[in-house]
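Re: the request from the purification team.
They wanted to know what the chain is likely to look like in 3D before they choose a buffer screen. I agreed to run a prediction and write the result into the notebook, where they can find it.
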Amino acid sequence: MSGAFPVAKPGQVIGLLGGSFDPPHAGHVHISKEALKRFGLDRLWWLVSPGNPLKTDGPAPLADRMQAARAMMQHPRVTITDIEAQLGTRYTAQTLVALRRRYPGVRFVWLMGADNLAQFHRWQDWRWIMDTVPVGVLARPGDRISARLSKAAKTYTHARLPGRAAHILGRLDAPAWTFVNLPMSDQSSTAIRKRGEW
């Protein structure tokens, strides 16, 4: 446990990039820097999760993943936090409820890769998430079409912001989401684990 909660002031736009970061890699760094630029974020937090409820195998110990994430992502506007472990939340919706209570007036934006949007409807309370915080979707190679055809994309087609207007996402009230194509890194934590590099 790091013990300290990140600092945020009312009115700030803070992007939340949740994940197991098992291990963190250059692709996470790339999408974080792009998200800061594209979505007009003041800051971005990596929410290093205790564990992913949709994955059967548990990740490496949280302390190891936090240490690796801090070594990998060094940017003055990016904070690495284990806030979900501190709050005792397991699902994104629970985390958002707790964060909104703890940080009144802060404008949170949930960030995800297009691969997550494709199966977002399997997440607990996914409609509540879409109705509560703006969502910024970052396209990874090969994931664009399945994401665009996903249940979440179709259900919230009325709330989709054109990519060229992505910079105002954090200032909009939910539901609001946008999809930006990136020259993406194709690195993945799964591939790194398979190669035995973690």
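For the purification team: The CA atoms of residues 93 and 99 lie 10 Å apart.
Please add any questions underneath this entry.
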